[in-house]
Each structure stands twice: as C-alpha cells, then as structure tokens.
C-alpha cells in the first residue's frame, strides 16, 4: 500500500507541459493506492457551474483513475477554493477540509494546503478570510461567468505583483503557526504545499522528533511525495508536448 501527495500544479489550458505531465502521471500505475491533492490543482476556479473541454478532460482522467481503484482526496488551495461537491463527485474525488488529519505508518499526520500558515503575509490573510466566507462565495457565484473570469484574472495579476514585491520570509510559513497546528492536533508530522519550496524539514524539540514536508509546484519540474515505509519526495521532468 502506498499513499501519494501532490499540490500546486496550477493546471490551465495554456500550461501544456504541466497538463501533459499530469496526464502521464495519472495514466501510469504510479500514483499509489491513495492520492491526495493538496490544493492549487487548477490555476483558478470560478465555480462548478462553469466547464469547458479542458476541465472535462481533467475530470475524466480523475474519474478513470478512481474507477481503477485509486482513492483520490482533494483539499482547497488559494487558487481553487471554489471547487465544490459537484465537481468532486463527477471526478470521483472526496473533498477534505483544511486542515485534515490522517494516519500514516501508525503516526498522526496533518494535511494542509499551507496558505493559512503564512501569517506574516497580512494582506493575503485578509483576502483569505474574505474569500473563504460562505456569504462572499455565494455573492461571487451569483455573478455572471464573464464577471467571475474578469475578477480571477485581475486577482492573479495582483497576486503576481504582490509576490514580486514581498520579502521571501513573509511568503513562507510562520514557524510559530506550524508549532501551534502540530500541538493543537497532537501530531509530529505535517504535509503541505503552497510555498513552492519543496523540502523535508526535520527538527527535535521537547524530546520529540518533528517533520514538515513541503510539496513542490509543477512550473518547471513535477513533484510528488510517496509514502510507503518512508517519506520520499520525488522530482521528475515534465514532457515537452509537440
């Protein structure tokens, strides 16, 4: 039995290498018995009521993967927090709350997207609070498709601009918040994405060994975490579709 984790693919029609890499990843019998997608799966999501040929292609490969026996779980990211039960059901995925607790190799593990850990990025934390509010989401989804696409386009441009101006320390997780979450859930292992800084961090504190495993984005390489007896963070080349 193996459990695999991916995040931050930022799938979009124009991202041909990422899309090809994801399709290869899912078609091969390599994504484990259980696959967790920890957010920012799509570059943006404007609601389950919108679909196109590209979205249907991704939905079909997810469904085909679950039908061959792979359990797929999905957690919202900061780009695709509007993915709902309708898309997940059509794709055969199970929607998870953030954070979510699982057990691996007899140990309790916290799963998160990771954006809520970046508490020093105050502007983003304010946006996150607004965007995750059910009332705001209802009002947003009541807008036309065109209005929602326009909002998502502007939000992405603003995010890119803010990121280029921010200190790297602000964009990373706040260590104190990591400790708070581990203590709150009585766990010693955390897996998350969001920061695009793949690594396995290990430390010893108060007589306990801790691990924080950060998943990589798929902008230049593909990344996944494979868990069997050990935790293995794997980098691989993306194909060059003709």
Can you describe this structure?
With 242 residues, the chain is α/β, with parallel strands linked by helices. It has one domain (3-236): Metallo-dependent phosphatases (Purple Acid Phosphatase, chain A, domain 2, 4-Layer Sandwich), CATH 3.60.21. The chain is 36% helix and 24% strand. The chain is built from eight helices and eleven strands. The protein has helices spanning 16-27, 53-67, 85-91, 122-131, 134-141, 145-165, 168-171, 175-184, and strands at 3-6, 34-38, 71-75, 94-96, 100-104, 107-111, 189-192, 199-205, 208-214, 222-227, 231-236. The strands form two sheets. A six-stranded mixed beta sheet has the order 4-3-2-1-10-11. The chain has a five-stranded mixed beta sheet with strand order 5-6-7-9-8, covered by helices on one side. It is globular, with a radius of gyration of 18 Å. The model has no long low-confidence stretch (mean pLDDT 92).
Q: Could you tell me the mean pLDDT?
A: 92
Radius of gyration: 18 Å
Number of strands: 11
What's the N-to-C terminus distance? 35 Å
Instruction: Give the number of domains.
Output: 1
Widest sheet, order of strands? 4-3-2-1-10-11
H-E string: EHEHEHEEEHHHHHEEEEE
Query: Which class best fits the helix and strand makeup?
Result: alpha/beta
Low-confidence stretches: none
Largest sheet report = 6 strands, mixed
User: Considering DSSP H and I runs of 4 or more, what fraction of the residues is helical?
Assistant: 25-40%
Number of helices: 8
Architecture, CATH level 2? Answer: 4-Layer Sandwich
The third-level CATH topology is Purple Acid Phosphatase, chain A, domain 2
Within CATH, the superfamily carries the name: Metallo-dependent phosphatases
CATH class categorisation = Alpha Beta
């Amino acid at each position: 039995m193996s459990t695999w984790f991916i995040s931050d693919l930022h799938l979009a029609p124009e991202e041909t290498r990422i899309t090809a890499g994801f399709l290869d990843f899912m078609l091969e019998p390599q994504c484990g018995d259980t696959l967790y997608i920890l957010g920012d799966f799509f570059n943006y999501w404007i609601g389950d009521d919108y679909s196109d040929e590209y979205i249907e292609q991704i939905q079909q490969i997810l469904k085909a993967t679950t039908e061959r026996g792979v359990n797929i779980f999905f957690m919202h990211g900061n780009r695709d927090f509007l993915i709902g039960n309708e898309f997940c059901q059509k794709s055969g995925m199970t929607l998870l709350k953030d954070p979510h607790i699982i057990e691996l190799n007899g140990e309790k593990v916290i799963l998160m997207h990771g954006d809520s850990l970046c508490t020093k990025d105050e502007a983003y934390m304010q946006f996150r609070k607004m965007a995750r509010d059910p009332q705001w989401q209802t009002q947003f989804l009541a807008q036309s498709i065109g209005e929602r696409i326009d909002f998502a386009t502007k939000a992405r441009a603003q995010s890119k601009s803010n990121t280029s101006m921010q200190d790297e320390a602000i964009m990373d997780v706040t260590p104190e918040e990591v400790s708070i979450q581990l203590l709150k859930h009585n766990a010693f292992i955390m897996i998350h994405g969001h920061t695009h800084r793949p690594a396995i961090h290990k430390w010893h504190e108060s007589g306990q060994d801790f691990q924080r495993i950060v998943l990589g984005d798929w902008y230049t390489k593909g990344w996944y975490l494979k868990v069997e007896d050990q935790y293995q963070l794997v980098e691989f080349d993306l194909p060059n579709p003709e």
